Amino acid sequence: MMISPMNMESWINQALAIVEAGPEHPAFDDAWEYLAMSKEPQVRQAMRQAMEEIFGPHPAPTGYDDLGEPYWRTSVIAAYLNIPEDEILETAYEMKEKWGYSAGVAQTRELHAVH
Fold it and tell me: What is the sign of the dihedral through the CA atoms of 47, 53, 57 and 62?
């Protein structure tokens, strides 16, 4: 089933409202995951801004893939989020199991380190 752009906007707005309500909302995890997995440029930008409001500016990327998308080593993200690296790896594994390669947590393109 394909979601129409109007329905997609409605879904995004609902997810944003749930995330804004906070972690105590029963659908928080699902809404956050929906937004985090979104490929919509506006949603990606909003998620990045929200992360920076909470954790400060993103660290410099470890490198870029062939499409110019930044990537970070798990140790860099763990330090940025102030959580153990094994927790990042566990979450990445769960995301890959649920979403496959579209989760963006497995190397699917050539990566070019800059640091």
Answer: negative
CA distance linking residue 16 with residue 70, whole number of Å:
24
Q: 10 Å Cβ neighbour count for 71?
A: 17
CA dihedral 69, 63, 54, 47 (to 10 degrees): 10
pTM of the model: 0.65
pLDDT tens digits, the chain, 115 residues: what are they? 344 455 777 888 888 888 888 888 999 888 888 888 787 888 888 888 888 888 899 999 998 988 888 888 889 999 998 999 999 888 878 877 877 776 666 555 676 778 5
Long-range contacts of 102-105 (CB under 8 A, 24+ apart): 102/37, 103/37
Distances (CA, A) of 91 to 9, 37, 45, 74, 83: 27, 13, 22, 11, 12
Task: Check if the beta carbon of residue 62 is closer than 8 Å to that of residue 105.
Answer: no
